[in-house]
Amino acid sequence: MFQKIEPKELDANFFSLLSQRWGLVTVADGAGCNPMTVSWGGTGILWNKPVATVYIRPQRYTYGLMEQSKYFSLSFLPEERHDAMALCGSKSGRDTDKVKDCGLTVCRDQAAPYFEEAELVLVCRKLYAQDFDPGCFVDTELDGKNYPGKDYHRMYIGEIEAVLKK
Question: Is residue 166 part of a domain?
């Protein structure tokens, strides 16, 4: 079903994918896995490598898993699976089995788990992680608007090691 392609062959519009359809960042959780909906992120070239960037707040269950894992995936589901995206963004993996609740099928043939229902998957190896620093905001309105609780995201940059496309 999936075809493995090179990152430079991607023709996806990540602005639309992330802002309108969202993605699932997924990390192994022992024998299981935990997907979390993301709408902030990006792709590009950094350190001469194809990379994907995601941002996770410290109170999210996925944060602790990301800290322990060397790999994560980004899965982009078809528009008709927006219900799964909504559930994975509103429920915590601490309290529920989101994979079961969404009826998703986990694939484990890559370094990070991903979903059979996805149309596009990026499998990434973590390269870098850094917390947002409030003192670095040039546009200081962004700080107050996005972080009233001072719960700054941690940025994760991962090298895209596999691109799977249907």
Answer: no
